[in-house]
Amino acid sequence: MADYNVLLERIGKPELMEGPVPELSAEDYRNLQRLNDNLRRQFAHFHPTGWGIELNYMPNIMPIALNLFEFLTTTQGRPNIHFTEEHRARMTKALAQARVSFEAFKQTP
Prior knowledge:
Layout: H1 4-10, H2 26-44, H3 58-75, H4 85-107
Helix pairs in contact: 2-3, 3-4
């Protein structure tokens, strides 16, 4: 399996996509790299010491991550090859719930 940053780079190459390429700005790419570098690695390489997630990254990262996930699972064949209609309905519902939860998070002081 390819490294996260390699995969992130690949989604911007039309010759590697089965449909449209997602429209991501340079800032979107930076935020998606932060998702991997600052958040995912903290979970994957947890050491039993003081630990926390910097919440100030979330308002910039989560909408982009949710939109990109939705884009890839609705426009590309390979990520969906084994999805049933029930899977698609569950993903649509989960994305909607995640967005509502995230909006509520943003409103919390």
